[in-house]
Write a structure and sequence with these properties.
- This protein has helices at about 15-25, 65-85, 95-105, 175-195, 210-220, 265-285, 290-300, 305-315, 340-350, 390-400, and strands at about 1-5, 10, 30-35, 45-50, 60, 90-95, 115, 125-135, 140-145, 170, 200-205, 225-230, 240-245, 255-260, 325, 360-365, 370-375, 390.
- By secondary structure, it is α+β, with helices and mostly antiparallel strands.
- It folds into 3 domains: about 1-85, Double Stranded RNA Binding Domain (2-Layer Sandwich), CATH 3.30.160; about 90-170 and about 350-400, no CATH class; about 195-330, Double Stranded RNA Binding Domain.
- The strands form 5 sheets. Strands 6, 8, 9, 10, 16 and 17 form a 6-stranded antiparallel β-sheet that branches.
- A hairpin with a 5-residue loop joins β8 (about 125-135) and β9.
- α4 runs parallel beside α9 (about 340-350).
- This is YcaO-like family protein.
- Pfam families: YcaO.
Length: about 400
């Protein structure tokens, strides 16, 4: 087991790069380049280019070290390529929504997979489905392909869930990929509730360990401000969010944020910080088509509105009304000595909190890599661009109204 700065792998980042290079051309990845020098911050970020990508053509990778960022850029592009229904090994078929509903086990409802706001399904309507496996019970189940393919095969007017990258992950082994996917699902679930009610805790940088303090100092010494906050959650797994602020609201990247979840708290925190750095450089690089609309909206704001939102965001995240010492955050690092033990920790946390079904499809698997897409019923993923709400978040919203 290799404990990297921002992940746990069964092999080194250098070895991951070597294996990725072997299949990247076949998947349409034409170039992986170091874009670190575009920002004065100097923290490693790489970009991979896949011109034929249907969802994105540019992917980014983050890390504390250059090889970690390069491996990340390769693997995200490979994930997207393999999740494309034209490349995926996952087969699809058609059935009625009623057949899908009838196939669900006791205690699981179709709405547990988070419909988009104002969307519903007609039981007699036809739906494209794939067969996913519950990795906890071994049972096969039919589920709408929207939850697994990227892009979706479902016509836009018939979309109920909308395709998402949440739970799409790669690994040097199937178990490693599964761990990355589930950690992301936990992260996005926690962040969904944070959007409804921010109960996060400010982490004093003076309390950080030396490796995290080094990241903090690199940001601060560049003339930027870094804020790290901890998000308590029902999984009792460390989740952090980080914001990097410029001195003024003038630029589109004046505030960049990132999140991270992992049973090892130092990895969760490092992921949040490096993702904020990556988000900042992604905006500077300008290669991501999905950021164009956001940039246009920001550009259309008046200088006073930009300053208002910037000041509000900065005031909120640097607030010390809720504070927590980094050392007070519990984690299971003492019980983690292998990839298998890491998974045991995660699985136990999920089961304790009532998440007893984990549905997985394998888009690609070889002796070098595995690419998976995982969904967990009742886990939330609410984003401004795709407003999806499940029963837990809906209940939270109703309580907020009282």
């Amino acid at each position: 087991m290799h404990i990297l700065n921002s992940s746990v792998r069964v092999t080194s980042a250098v070895d991951t790069i070597r294996k990725a290079e072997k299949i990247s051309r076949k998947l349409g990845i034409t170039r992986v380049t170091d874009i670190t020098r575009l920002d004065f911050l100097g923290m490693p970020v790489f970009a991979s280019i896949r011109p034929t990508g249907k969802v994105l053509c540019v992917h980014n990778g983050k890390g504390v070290l250059a090889e970690e960022a390069k491996a990340g850029a390769y693997m995200e592009a490979i994930e997207f390529a393999c999740a494309d229904p034209e490349n995926s090994s996952v087969k699809w078929d058609k059935a009625s929504y009623q057949e899908i509903i009838d196939d669900l086990p006791d205690g699981v409802k179709l709405t547990d997979f988070c419909f988009r706001v104002n969307r519903s399904c007609n039981p007699i309507s036809e739906v494209i489905y794939v067969t996913a496996k519950d990795i906890l019970t071994g049972d096969d189940i039919k589920l709408p392909e929207e939850l697994f393919f990227l892009p979706s095969l479902t016509p836009k007017e018939d979309i109920v869930f909308g395709f998402s990258t949440n739970g799409l992950a790669s690994g040097n082994t199937l178990l490693e990929a599964t761990i990355h996917a589930v950690c992301e699902l936990i992260e996005r679930d926690t962040m969904s509730f944070d959007k409804v009610e921010d109960k996060s805790y400010f982490i004093d940088p003076l309390d950080l360990t030396d490796d995290l303090k080094s990241l903090y100092e690199k940001v601060e010494n560049s003339g930027l401000s870094l804020c790290l906050r901890y998000l308590k959650n029902e999984f009792d797994i460390p989740v952090f969010k980080a914001y990097i602020f410029e001195k003024s609201s003038e630029n589109y990247c004046s505030a960049a944020h990132g999140c991270g979840a992992h049973p090892i708290k130092s990895i969760a925190a490092a992921r949040a910080i490096t993702e904020a750095i990556q988000s900042r450089l992604t905006a500077i690089h300008g290669g991501r088509d999905d950021l164009v609309d956001q940039y246009i909206k920001y550009s259309n704001l008046s200088p006073s509105d930009k300053e208002y939102y910037y000041d509000k965001l900065k005031l909120l995240h640097f607030s010390k009304d809720n504070s927590l010492k980094y050392q007070e955050i519990k984690c299971e690092s003492g019980n983690i000595f292998s990839i298998e033990s890491l998974w045991m920790v995660i699985e136990k946390k999920l089961k304790i909190n009532g998440f007893k079904n984990i549905y997985r499809v394998i888009h690609y698997e070889s002796s070098d890599f595995a690419i998976v897409k995982i969904v967990i019923p009742k886990m939330e993923h609410f984003e401004a661009y795709a407003k999806r709400i499940g029963p837990r978040l809906w209940e939270k919203l109703q309580l907020k109204k009282l």
